[in-house]
Structures are given as structure tokens and as C-alpha cells.
Amino acid sequence: MLDALRQSYDVRKSKANVRGFRKLVRAYEEMGIVMSTWFSLQRFLDSDCRPLPLTAGRGSRSVCSLVRASRVQISTKVAIELMRQSPSISTDALGNLTALRREFVLPGFTVSRAAIVIERYLDTLHRNSSPNNRTTLLLLERNCYVPEVNLRTLAPLLRDIKLRGSAYIDSVNGDIEGLRLTRSRRRTGEMSVHIFAWTRLSKVRKQKTITRI
Residue 90: helix, strand or coil by DSSP? Predict the structure, then answer.
């Protein structure tokens, strides 16, 4: 599955490849919904509200049951395959799967996933700035920017941003999930919230050489 994701990203020269890539990315995103359900639905939690280990077979405490409860289109077979490749989940000697973190990640897929996120971000910005858009803005954009900063001193602040950002996403996750439709003939769309911080090395300024005559 992961190899197919990479191939679709590397060879997306035709519309068919782009559609295939988006379909695979959707599976990745649906795994995020599966993980959120695992961490929030009571029947998949122990007495300390930690995710219970799930079997790869059948039963109330299985990946099959979790996928069904998540109301996603991804199959149980694909979900298990992706889980076994993700560092977000561990597998014991019996084949049971245990969630280690709420976020679903795959090694080597960060840039590929970002490509779709950027596309949606630019599309939303375009619609926000369109003169024909008289409805409520679809995107609230806020940012803080400092052009010169000592990158060696940023670690504590970046950890704080990550913790607060994760806490905010967790706080609105239930509300956003509550808006998800299972069956509807109405016009539907997508909604997502992303929080990120970035750093970049400044270019070294070249000193001008003064030639004295």
C-alpha cells in the first residue's frame, strides 16, 4: 500500500495518476479518523481511557469493529496493512495492534501528504479572495512571523506550540466529527484544520569586496 502511494506520487503525469493518488491519500486521511475513534469511543478504551489492544480478526475488540465504528470507506484489510507500517501503532507477538499515539503517520509519506494539503489550502485562499464569494470566509488565517531569530533557542517554544496545537485539535475533533455525514443527497464538501510552525535557515549575506585604488 505504501509503495503504491509513493509510486502514484512520483509518476503522477496524467489525470488518472492524480486521481489514483488522491484516492490513496483519502485512505491515509481516513486512517486519521480511525485513530481518532480508537482514542475517543468508550468501547475501545480501558478504565484509564487508554486505547485497548485490538485483534486483526473478528469480534467487538478488533480492527474490523473499529473501522466499522469509524464509518469510513477504507477496508479492514487495508487498515490493518497501514497500521502495521505505522510507527503510531505497535504489534505484539500474537498480532494484536496497540495505539501508541493519536496521530496516524507513515514513514516517508510526509511530503506526499503535504502536496494535497497545499493544493486545498491554495484553493481555499482563491475562493476567499474571489469577488463572487459573498458567503462566510472558508478560512481563518493568522500567523506570527519573525525574520531573524536564533534557531538554537527555539526548541522549548516549538514543543509548546506542538502541545497547544495538539490540545486544540483534540478539543475540536469531536465537534468536527459530529458534522460528518454518512448518507446525504445534499451538496457536501470537505473540512479540515491544520496547525503548523516552520523554521528556515537564512541565506548567508555575501560581503561586498571594496577595491581600493
Answer: strand
Q: Where are the alpha helices (DSSP H) in the chain?
A: 2-10, 15-40, 63-70, 76-85, 110-129, 155-178
The answer to whether residue 137 sits within a structural domain is no
Reduced to 3 states, what is the DSSP secondary structure of residue 45?
A: strand
The range of the structural domain enclosing residue 66 comes to 2-99
Look up residue 174 and give its amino acid.
G
| Residue 45 pLDDT class (50, 70, 90 cuts) | very high
The SS3 assignment for 62 reads strand
Long-range contacts of 97-103 (CB under 8 A, 24+ apart): 97/53, 97/54, 97/55, 97/56, 97/63, 98/51, 98/53, 98/54, 99/35, 99/38, 99/39, 99/51, 102/35, 102/36, 102/39, 102/166, 102/170, 103/32, 103/35, 103/166
Tell me if 108 sits within 8 A of 6, measured CB to CB: yes
For the stretch 7-22, pLDDT in tens is 544 444 445 566 767 7
Residue 92 lies in a domain: yes
Whether the model clears a pTM of 0.85, i.e. scores above it, the answer is: no
CB 96 within 8 A of CB 53: yes
- Looking at the domain assignment, is residue 15 inside a domain? yes
Q: Mapping DSSP to helix (H, G, I), strand (E, B) and coil, where does residue 123 land?
A: helix
pLDDT in tens, 119-129: 778 888 887 77
